[in-house]
Amino acid sequence: MVSSGDVDRLFLQAILSRGVMSSQLAQVIWGKCIKAVNESNDALNVRHSKEKDAWEGFVSKINKSLDKLDLEFRALHDESSGKEIKGDEIAQLATEYTPAEITFFKAIVEQIMLAPREAYVISDMAALREPALVGLTSMTKMQAEVILTSFVQKGWLLRSKAGHYSLSTRSLLELLPYLKSNYPDEILECTICLDIMTRGIACHTVNCKTRLHFHCFANYRRRHDTCPSCSTAWPRGAKDKPLLPVGEGAYAGDGRRRTRTITPSDEEDTEEEPEQPSQDPPPPKKAARGNVKKEQRREADMEVDNEEDEEDIQQAPTQATQRPRRSTRR
Q1: pLDDT score of 90 more than 50
Q2: 139 with 100: CB under 8 angstroms?
Q3: Basic and acidic residues: which segments have biased composition (predicted)?
C-alpha cells in the first residue's frame, strides 16, 4: 500500500543513484516523488511547496532518518561557480574501483592536500609516478593514465588545461569526514560561508588567516572594501594583486613529494622506549665491589698474613652482596 512515507524512499533512491546533484535538481526530484505517490493513491494528498522553508523541513526530515545510519544529506557550494550542490555520503560506498585503484586515488588525494602554498593540485606527471611510489608496481603508467581519466569522468577529480589535478566538489562533499580526519592541519575554511575550500583567494596581510571562495569574495566585495579580519584595503577583483591565490594559481611546481608527519601518538611511543634500561641490576653491587678492593689494599698495606687476607676477602663480598638484596625487597 502506497503511503506518504514512500516520498522519502523514492527520493533517497534517486539520490543514491546519482550521488551528487545541484540543489535545484534535488528539489525537482522531490516534487516528482510527491507527484508519483499522489498518483498511485487517490486517497493521499501530499502537498508540495516551492518555498525555502518547506524544502529545508523536508531535508531535515530526511536527515533524521539517515542519522540512524550515521549518514547525512548535505549541501556544498561549487568552488568555481558558487552553485549549491547536494549529495549523500552513501554514494562514496558505491564505487566500481578495485582496492589498488582506491589506493592510487588516496595517494593522489594526499599529494593534493599536502601541496605547498595552499595550491591543492598535483601535476599530471607527478600523478603518474604515484603508483610506483606507493607500492603499486604492477600498475603501468598507461594504466594509471586510464584510471586518472576515469576519476575525472566520474567526477572525483578535476583536470585543468595546464594538466593539474584537483579535488572536485563531489570529493569535497562526500569525502569531507575523511579529509578532516586525515588532514586536519591542511583543511581551509572560507571565512564567509565556513565551508571547506581548495580554491579562492587569501588576504595578503602577513599572519592574516582570511580565506574566501571566489563567489564569496564577489558577494562580500560588493558591500565591503576591506578584509573582514584585519581591515586591510582590498582591490576590486579576486585575481588582482596584492591578494594571494588559493588553488592552482599558487602552484609553483617544485617537484617534491610530500608525506604526512608523525602523529603525536607515535612520538609518545618513542619517548617511552628509553625507560627500559631501568630494569638492569641495581648499581649498589658495583659500589660494594669497590669497597672490597679498598679493603684488600688496606690489608695489603698492613702486611697481614696471607691466610687472614683471604678470609677477609671472602667475607667482604658476602656481606656486600647481601645489602642490595635487602634494599630491593623494601
Answers
A1: no
A2: yes
A3: 292-301
